[in-house]
Description:
Layout: H1 2-22, E1 34-42, E2 48-57, E3 60-65, E4 76-79, E5 84-87, E6 89-94, H2 133-137, E7 141-146, E8 153-161, H3 167-170, E9 171-181, H4 203-226, H5 235-239, H6 241-244, E10 249-254, H7 257-270, E11 274-278, H8 286-292, E12 296-298, H9 314-325, E13 329-331, H10 342-351, H11 356-361, H12 365-371, E14 388-391, E15 403-408, E16 411-412, H13 418-429
Helix pairs in contact: 9-10
Amino acid sequence: MNKICSYILGITACSLQLQAQETVYPARPQQGPIYLKNATIHVGNGQVITGGTIGFNGGKIIAVGNNVPVPMDDVKVLDLQGQHVYPGLIAPETTLGLTEVASVRATNDYQEVGEINPSVRSIVSYNTDSKVIGTLRTNGILLAHTVPQGGLVSGSSSVVQLDAWNWEDAAYKTDNAIHFNMPRLMARSNPFGATASGPGTDAVKAAMAKIEEVKRFFRAAQGYLQQPQHTATNLKYEAVKGLFDRSQKLFIHCDLVKEMIVAADIAKEFNFDVVIVGGTDAWLIPEVLKKSNIPVVLTQQHSLPVTADDDVDQPYKTAAQLQQAGILFCISNEGFWQQRNLPFNAGTAAAYGLSKEEALSAVTLNAAKILGIADKTGSLEVGKDANIVVSTGDILDMKSSVITRAYIQGREVSLEDKHKQLYERYKYKYGLN
């Protein structure tokens, strides 16, 4: 019996030791001013400061430039010796924290049943203990926009900072957008001659019927919200109130020209602040987007074009074409674990027409503008949150980017992650230490 107890206690101790090794605690609030000097500072708005200094205190940036005076007492000064300083990168469209293992249903909490669910809030499902979060911080991504999925109107999204105890701590901007997943306005055939929607079905007509269903919902909500009093509260109509007073944005997920024209029509009819997510064919209609003042969140640059007539490298070039046309856009990636590659997606855009600083803005300041948080983050300017990343090389280059420090609202956060832990574990196993 004693042997069995000892065995159980031994297993428990090993398990606790392993858990302790994997545990990463959120950082404490910033204690005292910090100055990073002798750095190449990429402000995020196109400006680069060589040999500069950035100071922050109380979670806010208090100084940035070449001739920043550094106090002599009670400050922490780090000489970066030429390393690069960037704004924290922003993942503008993701299910991070809403799913952990895609193939395990119990870990997926990003979708509700039904077609129209504007009252669903992604923020309350956000899991701050996700093992995926650390892999994003390691690549300089400090903020993420968590987006619900499924149905036609899937609910509201929120921006989170990636170092928190719970969703309340993580919330950076809550319920900033409602999401409409527009049905595909394209008839796609299967090998047997029937449309993808089923034999005898007009796929485009069915899609237009669903779009009209969503419009009817918004018209009904508009009428409800114009009434001074209600005999009963309608939670779905109340959930879209922010769209009508423009305190919320409507993110419309679509890719084709026809779909984006419908999005522009919705923006005009309801006076909504609309953002297009996807926007594969956005390069074909820059005049429409500019006239309607609709920004674009580009997703999945590393993919094939939509049609056989497009250039094979069209997804790589689209960002530069939107930049040239004067369209506000940012770069994203789909999914959750894939977000760790966000800076390298921006790097690809830089290789296909954007300048390095324009590509950086596409994952920092532009994303902040589209998400409605540019007053707090997205660039390294005095008064903004100290969301800062330090890298030995170019953060957009997979080969030279090595993140050495990261700060969220002035707190130095851990750069430990599951990948690094497994790397060290198996180095030890095979005697490679």
